[in-house]
Amino acid sequence: MGLKNRRESGTEQQQVGPSIGHWRQRLLEEVNLDDLARLDMAQRRARLEKVIGHILTREGPVLSARERSLLVRRIVDEALGLGVLEPLLADPSVTEIMVNGPDSVYIERLGRLTRLDMGFASEAQLYQTIDRIVAQVNRRVDESSPMVDARLPTGERVNVIVPPLSLVGPVLTIRRFPRAFRMDELVSMGALDHYTAMLLAAFVRARLNIVIAGGTGTGKTTFLNALSGFVPGSERIVTIEDSAELQLQQDHVIRLESRPANIEGEGAITIRDLVRNALRMRPDRVIVGEVRGPETLDMLQAMNTGHDGSMVTVHANSAEDTIYRIETLASMSEVKIPYDAIRDQINNAVHAVVFLDRALDGSRRVGEVAVVASGRREAIRLTSIVRFEPEPIGLDRVVRGRYVYQELPRDLIHKLVFSGEAVPQVFGGDAAPPAPPGQPPAPQGPPPRAPGPFPNGTASPGRPTAPPPSLGGSSTNGTGPAGGTS
Description:
Layout lengths: L2 H14 L3 H11 L2 H5 L3 H19 L5 H16 L5 H4 L4 E7 L4 E5 L2 E5 L6 H13 L11 E5 L5 E5 L9 E5 L7 H6 L5 H12 L4 E5 L5 H9 L8 E5 L11 E5 L13 H8 L6 E4 L6 H9 L7 E5 L3 H12 L8 H11 L2 E7 L5 E9 L9 E9 L10 E5 L4 H9 L68
Parallel strand pairs: 7-11, 7-12, 8-9, 8-10, 10-11
Antiparallel strand pairs: 1-2, 1-6, 2-3, 4-5, 5-6, 12-13, 13-14, 14-15
Protein name: Pilus assembly protein CpaF
Organism: Actinomadura namibiensis
Family: Belongs to the GSP E family.
């Protein structure tokens, strides 16, 4: 093709947009797929970028260096990855990608939804991207099976729903999980304050059963990951999830994942099946990614039969609602158990509820920590130990506030002390954990309030101005917990 024709073709190409499908097809014709299969992903990308570069030099339109680089990337992304979604997956600030048909793409960044000026070339291209995702986990999506949950190789959770259930075309939702966070990092980010973190770390090490509750996108999975870092590395942990998302750092971790039915409608393995099987695997702790049905009863029984220190997440609107939701979910089992018996199970099984909240400015934090203060044959009674009290929101639309503490019930203090855990005086204890070598002793009593409005005297929650007491930690890497956003 002559330079004049290529310039004219380039002008026309810029007017109608680059034909990514055409160049992708030319790339597949030029490359040797058998040789490509022997390379890892980075080598494949480099090889394809080199080949498509030669093709564009020989046949493509005349473009600037930036336009050419962008075109090469889009072609390779279409050939290897998820096409127009690849740049979004490479952006660490994007926590959720929502595709509502081929022409509508939204993202969540810093807790806020934004519509992007981009889309797929056609509905067929969107279906091709969806098929590429679900095929990686041996699942399918079509009119006979129009809903599917899957995950990307890098750990992102994917939900797909297509017509006839969706009236706007194929809908693809990708939830991204950030890198593993330690608990002290969550404290520095303002997700909770240091005294609450110390209390929760003591709960985990003392083998209390903890329920992490909150709405969609409040960070339940991230927080569960962080808490799990305080589990001693000597214990055997079994994790059970619909889609594997937890990133525990201990060595002795058995990861189980449920399985949907096959094309004949058979072969489904539910969370409940996995919970029952996990009890035969000699676990020290059972961690369930989320309970949402009859498996709740099996989880309560596991907590009541020697598997102390288990953790689970559940969707709820408050700490108090969490208990009622667990009660309702447990009653969904085909085993008809009286409500009084279920309440007794909850009273004995659940020790603490951590409720995560998402504020108006998009920030996520611990909104409340409550403990179950009732016993057998009693109505379920929660006692709030930590509560975040927000201030009236200002013109900057940033949510500020302070944490308020209450004393722990005496029997719970005794349980922590007998487990070798020190209880800070802010929660009614007699001691605070010892400071690590080279740091001043941990403060006794409530921390100072001046000059800021928060418990540690700062301008935002959980940002200490002086070295705080040590969180301790019992993770295998010695650095505390790790986390993943849900």
